[in-house]
Structure formats: structure tokens, C-alpha cells
Amino acid sequence: METSSFSSSSSSLFFLLLLLLVGLGAGQAEDKPCIPLDMGHSSFVCVCNATYCDTVLPPTLPPEGEYVLYSSGRDEGRFVKTQGSFSGKVEGSPRSVEFFLDTMTTYQTIQGWGGAFTDSAAFNILSLSPDAQDNLLRSYYSPEGLEYNLGRINMGGCDFSWRTYTYVDTPNDTALDTFALEPEDLEYKIPVVKRAQAMSTRPINLFASPWTAPPWMKTNNDYIGYGQLRPEMYQPWADYFVRFLDEYKAQGINFWGLTTQNEPLDGYVPNFSFNCMGWTAEEQRLWVGSNLGPALRDAAYDHLKLMIMDDQRINLPNWAVTVLSDPEAAQYVSGIALHWYMDQYYPPGVLTETHDLFPDYFILGTEACEGDGPLEQEVMPGSWERLEHYAHDILVDVNHWVTGWVDWNLALDMQGGPNWANNFVDSPILVDQDKDEFYKNPMYYAMGHFAKFIPEGSVRVSLTSPDPGDIEASAFTRADGAITIVLLNRSDSEELVVVEVSGRGTMLLTVPAHSLHTALFV
After folding, report:
1. Which of 367, 370, 437, 472 is catalytic?
2. Is 367 tagged catalytic?
3. Which of 62, 247, 373, 426 is most deeply buried (CB count within 10 A of its CB)?
4. What is the pLDDT of residues 439-462, one digit of tens each?
């Protein structure tokens, strides 16, 4: 790599030098740069601790006729900011890639971006010193960070917990008399959520997802494995959702949405190794229409965004057709929740097909992570390929009507846990408790190129090319009148990109190999 790399011992001195430089320029609001650290993979991580962390401040919109460009590359730079000017009509060279932006042709409204406040994520965040905790949370939620506006919370235990549990582990308590939030909620997730909310200038829309009902409600009497909800437990399980919402509300946490079940097909897999509960689309339709929907309505939670499926693209459009073609169930549903783990095996056209069948229901990406495959290395600090995989999947999704993208764990340890089932994976932020440091993986910046510059309420607009070659792109108009374009080059070659913008002129951009860019203009 061409970029400088830093050992853990030498980074402390560099921290002090940067702090001195920042102090000398304290009269000006400037982004703090990344402190790069080579950890043996294709790119580098950015090191943060209790006294220093790189930032990306809210962009100042450039004057008309100019654009600001934020760039991240495999070999150097994270959110490197430059400014350029539009020109008149530019004749593209034979080797250029041409795009045409049409803001009059509009598509879906963006709901936002975020990550999951899992038990493990909260544990890792709180394992740092208080000032380092603040720097990590600011990196995601404050105006000097990515400004996430969506957050997922596991309802009861999941694999990214350090034990198995639900809120009513007392057998046969169908009245839910022993329902109680656990230390994972009261001591970890809720305090972290409240601190994130206090830092954010944007509302954080929270949604909850269950992994399993209490074992005594299930056919296999277990947290894991091949097991489904017993039919006589349909109503107690719906009542459990209401109690969860009530108990969190009593703690000062209100929800924006719910998903009906995390990965419902997992509970139909023999010997599945972590928290799960099986549903078919037909079973989910019956339960939503007859039990969950009415329970939420009667408890005045019918304003929440209820999302069905919460599973892989391969289930579409059939899952949506089965549930949403039934008026009894469909009246309670707002959207379809989507995971990314099998995207490479199933074409994105099913997203457009699902949207066209049910245009009044949104599609939201609700979980993604790297390192989950059986042949994959679980944690790869500094992997640029994982940034490219994130950015590529987001671009494909939003170009096929998906309204936002929520990452999995906000922070994991250097092993990719804790995880009681040993299902370790990677995360955009990795925490080294012993060094009181955390490391921003390239995936963090992949999320930032969207979350920071495409806020909730933005609208995707037409961006077309007769031959995009290796360049992937999407464009959006924002509520403040600005336009955002995201460009990804996963190839080994530098590309010359020409973007013609009606009424403004032409942007001429040199897009290096293995780089990600966000352009912003009015």
C-alpha cells in the first residue's frame, strides 16, 4: 500500500501530533483526518481512542455551478474532500463513462441508514473508557459522524448475546405475569440508545426484531433448531410484543417499527445452531391478521411500521404475495424487511417485481454483515473488498426500490463477538478493549458515503448510462434542494466519468481504481 501504516506503539505519538495541529486550527471547523493502521489486509483501518477520532462534519453546500466531492480509496484517504466546477457540454473521450442525470424522473423516498444495537454491540461499546465510548457513538450518530437515523434492537436474546434468554422463561406463563426486561436491556442496550439519541440531531427511528419465542411456546421446546410457534401460543406471542413495547416505553424508549420474525425460515432448518423460530408465509399471514395486528391496534401501537419477512431476497415476491394479498393481514403491514446474505444467488429484479406488485409497501434492508460464510475469514481489519461489497449491494438495492439499508452489529470485538453460538462475523467498527482503542473498518466508510449525504426524505432520481462499464452509481435529491451522486469503481483501472446534469452543465471526474465517491451540489 502507498499509504502510511502505523503500529500500535507509534500511533500514540501520531495522536499527539494531530491533536497539536487540530489545536492550532481550532478557530476553524475542519474534518479530523483518519489515522491509518495497516493490519495485514488490502487496505487500512482508522484508529480512534479516548482523545482522538477522525470526523466528517456536515457538508457546506457549494455555490451554484460547483460541486463538493468526498472520496475514499483503497490505497489512501477516507472522506477526502475536494471541490470542482461544472463545465459546458463535454464531448466524452472513447474511454470515458457517460451518465445522464434527470431530476424530473423520481423513484422511492429514502427512509435512512443505520445499524443494530445488539447485546454484543452495546457490551463492546461500554467496554471502552467513557471518552472512547463517546467517540465511538459520535462516529455513528453525531453531526461529526455518519448521522445514522435507523436502529435495530433484538427483542430478547439473539446469537449476538452472551447467553440464551427471552423475557418469559417461566414455563406456561401465558398471562406473561413474569415478563421482565433483562440486564442486557437495562444495563447495556437502553443506556447506549439513549446516549446515541442525545448526540443526534436527527430522530433515530428504532425497530425491534425477535429471534425466538420462549421455548415453552414452541414445538421443540428450545431456543434453537427446527421449531415453530405452537398454534395455541399465537395470541400469547402477540401479547408478548405489546409487553415488550410497553416495557421499553416505560424506560423512555419508543419504537418506529417492528419486524415479525428474524429470518423465519431458519426455524425450518434441522439442527439450526442459534436462536430461531420457523414461519412459513402462510403461517405469518394468519398470525399477523388474526393476532399480532389486532393486538398492536388494541394497544394503540398500530402507528408502528410493521415489516414482514425479514429474510433473504430469494423469498420474493412470493412471501409478499402470500401475506399482502390477504386484506386481513395487509391492513396491518407497512413494509418488507430484507437481508442480504443470498443476494449473489438471486437477481435484484425480484425487488422491482415486488415493488410493482405492492407499490404502497416499502422495502427496507434490515441486516448485512461480512465474514458470515463458512469459508470466509470472520474478521479482516482493513479489508477494502468488504467496503466494495457493502457499497455494491447498497447501490444495487436502492436502484431496485429499496428505501434504506441497516447494517448488523454497530461494534464487535477483535474476534467478531461476543456470540454465544460462536457465529463470529466482521463489523464496521472493531473494539480492542485492552488497548482502549477502536478501529473503523473500510465498511464504516461505505456506510458513510450514503448515510452522511443522503438523509431520510431524500428521493432517488434517474441516473442512466448507455454503457456504465465498471462504474456503479445512483443519484438522489435532498429536502434542502441539493443533489447527491454516489459512484463506485471496483475495477483495477482508473475511469474518466462524465456526468451531464440538465440545467447545470457537466461534471468531469477522474475515478481511481478501487474507490468510492459522493458528489454533492445544488
Report:
1. 367
2. yes
3. 426
4. 999 999 999 999 999 999 999 999
